[in-house]
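User: Before I run my own analysis I want an independent prediction to cross-check against. Here's the chain; please return only the structure tokens and, at the end, one sentence I can use as a sanity check.
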Amino acid sequence: MTTYGYARVSTNGQDLTSQEAELSVAIFLMLVVGFYWFAFMGTIWFWFNALFALTKGHFIRAAIWACLGFGMLAWWQGTEVIPHPWDVDAWLRGSAVFVGVGVLATFVRWRKKQQAMQAVPTMPTWTPPKTPANDNALPMFSLHVKREG
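Assistant: Structure tokens:
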């Protein structure tokens, strides 16, 4: 049965009203728009986290966030919905190298901090007390209380 307007539309032997058909199309479109909205917000989130982690000096974390952000940008700029496996492999290898550079930068920062901490003594060295000049034993004091009365 096929009629137009607000009549019933037959699909696969089931009759749908035009409102039900519009509702199913609306739900599908909302899911598609929601997917792209969350992908866009995720891209922004990745790049801001990379920027703030870099300003705090967390180089490994910044490298990981930047790699995720670059992966999302590459996905946005790609011509295919599902990228070629070699493209993903190249992105993973590049990300591993980039995170490795972050690891080296973190090690250099830690090593400089370690050297600075070793240069400044944290506690003065203990010196033993001097012996008395006359080499006598320690003086003994006795206290006597006198009561008058």
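Sanity check: Helices lie at 18-56, 59-77, 85-119.
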